[in-house]
TrEMBL record:
This is Obscurin like cytoskeletal adaptor 1b. It comes from the Eukaryota. Residues 8-98, 112-206, 218-298, 307-393, 694-772, 840-926, 933-1008, 1025-1112, 1140-1211, 1303-1396, 1397-1467 form the Ig-like domain. It comes from Cynoglossus semilaevis. Residues 488-589 form the Fibronectin type-III domain.
């Protein structure tokens, strides 16, 4: 079935149109699609509404856009978009309006423009203010004055201002008797038919207030706040004209500054906020409101309470100059009290800017290089909430600073005001580092020493850091633009549907009742096709202001029953849908696009008839007037606009039958003719062919006559070869090939050979539409409000249609929401993001009234808890509109969906209304903190603070007045109950809590509560000091020989305490050869084999004590034990090496960890291609893989206190001269080549003698002596073993010698890569080409010699290397060399270990800072209880503390550039002690030959040391 065949497609693309200015322009395009697509026109991403100068009409499948009286502004690109339920497409058309220059010139001449802009001004309170400007425009522009984005008549009474105009284009605004609220930004907007212009100015009203005295009738309210907290006063005043608000304290005018915030909040309250109250803020605050009608006063007395714990010495206010040093100092009650420094609500950290010092009870904060932005309130806070506050005033060029932050709603004006010390200073404004210039939306003005910056009609992109700069001084402020909260419109009401008119439905509705408050910008109609099983709703119409619309049958894609629904939309969203009450049957008006065709069908084959319509309708098929039904013979299919009938196995009696198709308003007929059976055409393929779109279509058949012509038809229309369609003829084969199939290629194809016809039914199907994979970053997007949301996906089919949904609701294009299609990409664009565009709203779960209203006694913990719907949601806690943050008093917790506020010890000041808010919801808590009742005998004073050592009894006691009074004990707010070891006693009026043996976990805050009172006991349990028993002099000072063990022991007082070992102040960790043992109370550090680097001062430390040990290891630090030069010859420190062979310089140091450096002729060497440096235990090697003459020189291996040198001389190959002319030399390269030695004598008759190795050779079949004229020659037919040697030719006392060397070949026998388990035997074999061939064996470039563990055998031509018992050190590359031939073998040794063994895998890096990763069987390893990963210098070690069978596998130590593999096999059985000793002795003797005498002595001593381990003492 062709599901995608009806996607819209352009049959004729719109062409560029050129029109004269003032004429009508017509843009047109031709579009096909099934169902009929909906077509819209757009310009600049905005839909063109067919009204005014725009008209849209359709003529069949031609769609027209008519623009009347075009102007130069109409020039540009227009987009035609077509869309149906299957897909969408679009194309662009360009309109060019000629006369553009004249039109532009005319517009520029006549559009409004300011010749003189209004000037910013400053007036005194009560004076008149005048703004004047001069405008040009033809016709005369209309002028509107606004203040802060609002029209003047909306905010001022008519008598407070006047607007006028005068001849010459002068316009004037006058404001009478200005008041403080009149200050702000005034804009003048001028408009006429050619355009508009805008200019702005600032009015600054100076305060000249008379004193307002509080009358006796004024009631003064009382307000108390704890020192360091904020105080907030609000008053609500109404009146017309709008009242002017003045705030005073004790009669003095209050101006907005760092500690005083004055503003009008969103609810219309005039607010004064006093930040970080101090004792000097005590006093009477008055809010005076006045307008022309009178004035009113409101007063409140602020009382600032001292904190419960006072500072011995509080902070003192400072005045400092810019770039000076400011020092704040205070004194806390006790030495141990920690403090925290704050600059207002920002916690300070020590660093280059802030220095923080503590000594005794004094605390100091140093502020370096102080600037204007450091001006503010500084706080020193103790853990109990006590604060000391100081105000730092920075004096300098800037007198009035910017506020730290400015919050405005989107669309409001944002104003910044700065005052400097002098007039006419060079000042600059910046936002996010970019200097600002004055525009129509950015006003920058100066009034003497006052400088003002205003952002008009702020948008989210205006947010950022605003900076004012004058000279070297600057002040900055954070501008935050908050999105205004808007709501989508309500849904329409009174929806009705009228179906009286045939094939049509009249839909009507009434706008929502709150239209004035929340008006919709339009309505969206959707339809749903019934009877298909699909629940999908499709948009069918949008309208702006109409409240009724008629839906015609021609507007639906196919005949069906439909139902409709409607919703309201605006830029903030859409309303719920309202469904119309009943369904209606609609039939589209269809036309025939491709009629039925007569068919000639061979008898017995299938006949197919098809018709293509312009719309999808339900039709009926007839055969000779009889209606057909679906059965085994007749098959009817409908695919949108395509209808087809298949008659299976036609018979001769059907010849001449009439086939008729009848649908709504359509009738068409065709004849069917039957052809007798003919064998001239043979088909080799299935005649019913289904092809995916884009794939080739190949139809072929075979003729009986290769010369016979054929004709190809599609649906009765003859086909010819064109681009993309080829008709081919090869012998008897006839073929038609369509290179790339399209939906239009579906149909019935016929190959007509005059006497015979063969038909093919071709159906082109679209492939399934799939989405390309999206990364997580593209699926989960977080953006700020006001920014653009762009969601994008990619399809496999460029014409496929997609639908966008949000929270299950289908989205449609509307203002601010665009749905775009560009090739394979589909995009959803929301121009300005709002909160409702994000995830579902975050709501609070219902809370009981008991939890909402809490009344508790002072001193008890206060816990407020709520549950949100989204565990990731962020909440804000506020108290009395002041946002709360975590501090020493208030704790804010977030666990899963639960949000909690905790005050551990509530005070009366914590009473009030708390609010927890999300972006979408809020919940309130009413909290009342009751003061402790005044009691005289309930609980008497006791020693409440307890501090005792661990293990001693803890007893808390209080005395109550009533012997029957019950009490409850609490610890850290959790109620206590009797349990093991806890005793709660009640004896008379005494109440006791007894813990016989206190532990560290018993520390905390205990409370004993009665119904009326509470007493608290802070309890601190101190751990017993962990001491170290005195260590004897002999134990503390040790002197050992190298190789001897070191054991340092000490005893501590607590067997469970941890100790830390240090050497020379550096903490020690366990490693190979070093163990740290804890047995009861004894702590031991054991070094198995002492080295010179182990000498030093060791210390064992507990948390409370330490013991020191002095260890001396006799002998030098680092010395060389063995030095050798290795090539193929005897080791020596001075040797000559031939060119091309490897050179190995080797020395042995006294310690594994020793670092050496290699030098050549005093220049330090580093690893490179052809030069390697290796370390193997205490061996240090320098390897030159292929010697060159330039490698000659003096090599040095250097330690910190020792060095060894090597003299290396690389011989150059001898410089030979060409042989004399009389001698002809034959060269050969390999065995089997003929050998010819010739000599050209001076006389032909000379008698010559040939000899080999001093003997005359035999002239046999393979040797032959020739003599021609003066030339004598010795010839060997095949160069084998016999010709090798010294050949000489002697004649007449002259002699010449030839040296013949036939090289051997090496053949592989064993694998080049061998893997063997540790302690097993491995054998490497190769074969040489002759039995007397000599080979050398090398390991990692070092020549090997036979030993107890290494055997080298030669049997005939076979050469074998056998390692009897492999060790991990046998890993490496083995080389067999015979002359110039080399074979390389790679050997890999496996490790066999047993359960519970400790295993250490180690490797060495070329760089100590290198990073490695350990893997086991491909899985990355991390530190765990049983696996420890360590890095010690260049060594990287993996330690398995106790191996298990499951630890077997392949281990890899991996760097970025290299990897090393370890094959570990762990079995269950552990060998006995004698087997271990035998293995150890075998290893010793296997490597004894390469050890130095000192090394053998150390091994013998180690064996004596290990003897008790195997056999006991």
């Amino acid at each position: 079935m062709d599901v995608f065949g009806g996607a819209p497609r352009f049959l004729a693309y719109p062409r560029p149109v050129v029109a004269q200015s003032g004429t009508d322009a017509v843009l047109k395009c031709q579009i096909g699609g099934d169902p009929r697509p909906a077509v819209i026109w757009e310009r600049s991403n905005e839909k063109i509404d067919p009204q005014g100068r725009y008209r849209v009409f359709e003529d069949g499948n031609v769609y027209n856009l008519i623009i009347t009286a075009v102007t130069v502004d109409d020039s540009g690109q227009y987009i035609c978009k077509a869309k149906n339920c299957i897909g969408e497409t679009y194309a662009a058309a360009t309109l060019n309006v000629e006369g553009e220059a004249q039109e532009l010139e005319l517009r520029e001449e006549n559009m409004p423009r300011f010749l003189i802009k209004p000037l910013s001004t400053r007036v005194g309170r009560g004076e008149d203010a005048v703004f004047s400007c001069k405008l040009w425009g033809n016709p005369r522009p209309e002028v509107v004055w606004e203040k802060d984005g609002k029209k003047l008549n909306e905010i001022f009474e008519s008598t407070h201002f006047s607007v006028g105009c005068q001849d010459g284009g002068w316009f004037q605004l006058k404001i009478f008797k200005t008041r403080a609220p009149d200050g702000g930004v005034y804009t003048c907007k001028a408009r006429n038919e050619f355009g508009q212009d805008l200019a702005g100015a600032v009015l600054h009203v100076s305060n000249r207030h008379k004193d307002d005295n509080i009358t006796k009738s004024t009631k003064v309210k009382m307000f108390a706040v704890t020192e360091g907290k904020h105080a907030k006063f609000r008053c609500f005043v109404t009146g017309k004209p709008k009242p002017e608000i003045i705030w005073r304290k004790d009669g003095r005018l209050i101006l907005s500054g760092r500690r005083y915030l004055l503003y009008e909040d969103r609810e219309g309250y005039f607010t004064l906020k006093v930040l970080y109250c101090k004792q000097k803020d005590n006093g009477v605050y008055v809010c005076a409101a006045s307008n022309t009608a009178g004035q009113t006063l409101s007063a409140v007395h602020l009382s600032v309470k001292e904190p419960p714990v006072r500072f011995k010495q509080p902070l003192i206010d400072l005045e400092v100059w810019e770039r000076d040093l400011a020092v704040l100092e205070c004194e806390v009650p006790e030495d141990s009290v920690p403090i925290t420094w704050y600059l207002e609500d920002r916690r300070l950290q020590p660093g280059a800017k802030y220095g923080m010092e503590e000594w005794g009870t004094k605390r100091r904060l140093t502020i370096r290089d102080i600037g204007v932005d450091d001006d503010g309130i500084y706080l020193c806070e103790m853990p109990d909430g006590g604060r000391s506050i100081a105000e730092v005033a920075v004096k300098g060029t800037i007198l009035r600073k910017l506020p730290r932050k400015v919050d405005v709603l989107e669309g409001e004006n944002a104003a910044f005001c700065v005052e400097v010390e002098k007039e006419e200073m060079d000042v600059h404004w910046y936002k996010e580092g970019m200097e600002l210039r004055e525009t129509h939306q950015t006003i920058i003005k100066s009034f003497g020493r006052t400088h003002i910056l205003v952002f008009v009609n702020t948008m989210p992109q205006d947010a950022g850091v605003v900076t004012f700069l004058v000279g070297r001084s600057k002040t900055s402020s954070q501008l935050r633009v908050k999105a205004a909260r808007h709501c989508p419109p309500s849904c329409p009401v009174a929806v009705q549907i009228n179906t009286e008119r045939a094939n049509a439905a009249l839909l009507s509705w009434v706008p929502p009742q709150d239209t004035r408050k929340n008006p919709p910008s339009g309505y969206v109609l959707e339809r749903q096709e019934m009877g298909t099983g699909s629940q999908e709703w499709l948009q069918c119409l949008t309208t702006d202001t109409a409240t009724s619309v008629e839906i015609l049958g021609d507007s639906v894609p196919c005949e069906a029953d439909y139902r409709f629904r409607i919703c309201s939309v605006n830029k903030y969203g859409k309303s719920n849908n309202v469904e119309f009450p009943k369904a209606v049957h609609l039939v589209p008006v269809a036309r025939i696009q491709a009629p039925l065709q007569d068919a000639l069908v061979p008898e017995g084959q299938d006949a197919v008839f098809s018709i293509e319509l312009s719309a999808s309708v339900i039709g009926t098929w007839f055969l000779n007037g009889t209606q057909l039904q679906e059965d085994e013979r007749f098959s009817m299919r409908r695919s949108r606009t395509h209808q087809s009938l298949r008659i299976r196995g036609v018979r001769d009696k059907d010849n001449g039958a009439e086939i008729t198709f009848i649908a709504y308003g359509i009738r068409d007929s065709a004849a069917m003719y039957i052809q007798g059976k003919c064998e001239s055409l043979k088909g080799f393929m299935d005649r019913n062919k289904f092809v995916e779109i884009g794939n080739p279509i190949v139809l072929y058949c075979e003729l009986s006559d290769p010369a016979a012509p054929v004709h190809w038809y599609k649906n009765g229309v003859e086909l010819h070869t064109v681009e993309g369609l080829h008709i081919q003829s090869e012998g008897t084969m006839r073929r038609i090939v369509i290179q790339s199939s399209e939906m239009s290629h579906s149909g019935v194809y016929c190959c007509d050979a005059i006497d015979d016809v063969i038909r093919f039914n071709v159906e082109v199907e679209a492939p399934p539409v799939r989405f390309s994979a999206l990364p997580d970053a593209a699926r989960n997007i977080t953006i700020y409000t006001g920014c653009t949301i762009l969601l994008q996906c990619e399809l496999s089919d460029s014409i496929a249609q997609v639908h966008w949904y949000k929270d299950g609701s289908k989205l449609h294009p509307q203002n601010g929401v665009d749905i775009l299609s560009d090739g394979l990409k589909r995009q959803l664009v929301v121009q300005s993001a709002e909160f409702f565009h994000s995830a579902p709203p975050v709501k609070f779960s219902a809370i009981t009234e008991e939890m909402r209203s809490q009344s508790i006694v002072a001193g008890c913990p206060l816990v407020l808890r709520c549950v949100v719907s989204d565990p990731e949601a962020h909440v804000s806690w506020c108290k009395e509109e002041m946002q709360l943050v975590s501090n020493a008093t208030i704790e804010l917790h977030s666990e899963g969906n639960t949000r909690t506020l905790v005050v551990q010890s509530a005070e009366p000041c914590h009473s009030g209304v708390y609010r927890c808010t999300t972006q979408d919801d809020s919940v309130e808590f009413h909290v009342e903190i009751k003061a402790l009742p005044v009691t005289y005998s309930t609980i008497f004073d006791v020693e409440r603070s307890k501090s005792l050592e661990e293990g001693k009894p803890l007893e808390l006691e209080c005395d109550v007045a009533d012997t029957t009074l019950p009490v409850h004990w609490y610890k850290d707010g959790v109620r206590l109950f009797p349990q093991n070891g806890w005793d709660m006693q009640s004896v008379g009026t005494l109440r006791r809590l007894v813990i016989p043996s206190a532990e560290l976990l018993h520390s905390g805050f205990y409370s004993c509560e009665t119904p009326d009172d509470t007493v608290h006991f802070p309890v601190d349990i101190k751990a017993l000091p962990v001491t170290i028993t005195t260590v004897g002099e002999a134990e503390r000072n040790k002197s050992v020989e190298p190789g001897e063990p070191i054991a340092l022991r000490c005893e501590i007082s607590d067997p469970n305490a941890r100790v830390t070992w240090y050497k020379d102040g550096i903490e020690l960790l366990e490693s190979a050869g070093r163990e740290m043992v804890a047995e009861g109370s004894v702590r031991t550090l054991a070094v198995q084999s002492a080295m010179s680097s182990d000498a030093g001062i060791y210390s064992c430390q507990t948390t409370d004590d330490a013991a020191q040990f002095h260890v001396d290891v006799k002998g030098d630090l680092f010395v060389f034990l063995l030095c050798s030069y290795c090539q193929h010859t005897t080791p020596s420190l001075s040797n000559t090496a031939p060119v091309g062979l490897p050179i190995i310089l080797q020395c042995e140091v006294s310690e594994d960890a020793a670092q050496v450096s290699w030098f050549k002729d005093v220049v330090e060497l580093f690893c490179r291609t052809g030069l390697d440096m290796k370390r193997d235990g205490r061996l240090r090697k320098l390897i030159i893989h292929s010697a060159k003459v330039s490698d000659s020189g003096l090599y040095t291996c250097s330690l910190a206190n020792d060095a060894v040198t090597f003299h290396v001389d690389v011989e150059a190959p001898p410089v030979g001269f060409s042989a004399p002319q009389e001698i002809t030399a034959n060269t050969f390269d390999e065995e089997g080549s003929p050998v010819r030695l010739s000599y050209d004598g001076s006389h032909p008759g000379d008698h010559v003698h040939w000899q080999k190795d001093g003997e005359k050779p035999l002239a046999q079949s393979q040797n032959e002596i020739e003599k021609r004229a003066k030339l004598s020659a010795f010839v060997s037919e095949a160069a084998e073993l016999t010709p090798s040697g010294a050949h000489s030719c002697e004649a007449s006392g002259d002699q010449i010698e030839f040296k013949v060397d036939v090289p051997m070949n090496l053949l592989f026998i064993t694998d080049l890569f061998t893997s063997v388990v540790e302690k097993e035997q491995f054998v490497l074999s190769c074969e040489v080409s002759r039995a007397d061939g000599v080979v050398q064996w090398y390991k990692d470039g070092l020549e090997m010699q036979p030993s107890i563990n290494v055997k080298m055998d030669a049997e005939g031509t076979k050469r074998t290397l056998t390692v009897v018992s492999t060790k991990l050190s046998d890993n490496g590359t083995y080389t067999c060399r015979a002359g110039d031939n080399v074979l390389l073998f790679k050997e890999d040794v496996h490790l066999d270990r047993h359960v519970s063994d400790e295993i250490i895998l180690s490797c060495e890096l070329s760089r100590a800072s290198g990073v490695v990763c350990w893997y086991k069987d491909g899985q990355k390893l991390q530190n765990s209880e049983n696996i420890k990963l360590k890095a010690e210098g260049p060594y990287r070690r993996l330690r398995i503390l106790s191996s298990r069978v499951e630890d077997s596998g392949e281990y890899v130590c991996d760097t970025d550039d290299d990897s090393i593999f370890f094959h570990l096999s762990i079995t269950g059985k552990h060998p006995g002690t004698q087997e271990l000793l035998l293995s150890y002795l075998t290893d010793v003797f296997n490597v004894a030959r390469i050890w130095s005498l000192a090394s053998l002595r150390a091994s013998y001593e180690a064996l004596l040391y290990l003897k008790p381990c195997f056999f006991g003492s």
